[in-house]
Amino acid sequence: MTPSGRGEQEHRGDAPDRSDARVALDRPGAPGGISTPGRTEAPVGPGTPGTPGRHALPLTGACAAWSHHAAELAVPLAASLERWDESPSTASMVEQQLLARILPGVFLPPDLLGTSIRRALALGCALGARLQSYYVIAGPSAAWVLLGGDPPAPAELLSPAHRGSLVGATVRTSRLQPREVETIGGAPVTVPLRTAIDLLRFAPDHVAAPWLRELILSGHVTEAAIRRRLQRMERYPGAGAARQRVGLLLEPPSLAA
Q1: Whose CB has fewer CB within 10 Å in the chain, the N or C terminal residue?
Q2: Compositional bias (Basic and acidic residues) at which positions (predicted)?
Q3: CA dist 123 to 54, 89, 108, 147, Å?
Q4: What are phi and psi of 138, to 5 degrees?
């Protein structure tokens, strides 16, 4: 599930009728590697001998660019990150749900991605030293943080700075209002309404439609709130097309077909 877009400057929109207090990460003990056929189980960390096609990832400072809180909660996830060469073997492990690809070549065991906090921090950990304090998880990536499922590729981030270049991620330029961003486990994520609007403006239909329907069905946002916000966006990039798409994309798949 993937999109991209262009630079923008936006104003505050409708705020979702909910408050999130995601401030704790389950700590069942520091998770290690996972067992898969034909692979030696081993913890991943500096100086750890790797199996063929597998490389150690540095653990220091994971998610520290976002906040001290995020860095503390990210420790067990950072310890479980695995870097594998992209190959038919790793593709097969992803297909069998033995690994979840967070970014190209960077994976986690899927059972470590069971909460919104873990999913948000997993993306920050995967970015490693490339993570900037002003990166905000957005678009399909923000929807994935809230809803779960397969990590979208490419990941999507918003930045108030000039558009950057990250392998496996789309970085769009945007000036976000405080009400458009929430903190999940110390990681900044666009609120559900802003996430839905960005999906309509920038994501292709096959990416936007499933996420939009799930955001509404799960109660994170309403279709009425989406329509109201779009009506107030007169001269924003992609807003006109979004107003034309909203009805079609929110139809049930059987009717849209």
Answers
A1: C
A2: 7-25
A3: 19, 23, 10, 15
A4: -145, 175
Q: Are 174 and 160 in contact (CB under 8 A)?
A: yes
Structure tokens at 163: 């558009």
Angle between the 192-202 and 139-147 helix axes, to the nearest 10 degrees? 140
Q: Show pLDDT as tens, one digit a residue, over the chain (257 residues).
A: 444 333 444 433 333 333 333 333 333 333 333 333 333 233 333 333 344 455 544 545 799 999 999 999 999 999 999 999 999 999 999 999 999 999 999 999 999 999 999 999 999 999 999 999 999 999 999 999 999 999 999 999 999 987 678 999 999 998 899 999 999 999 999 999 999 999 999 999 999 999 999 999 999 999 999 999 999 887 888 888 898 898 888 876 654 44
Query: How far apart, in whole angstroms, are the C-alpha atoms of residue 44 and residue 56?
Result: 5
Instruction: State which amino acid sits at residue 167.
Output: V
pTM, two decimals, is 0.77
Rounded to an integer, what distance in angstroms lies between the CA atom of residue 158 and that of residue 164? Answer: 10
Alpha carbons within 13 A on the beta-carbon side of 185: 27
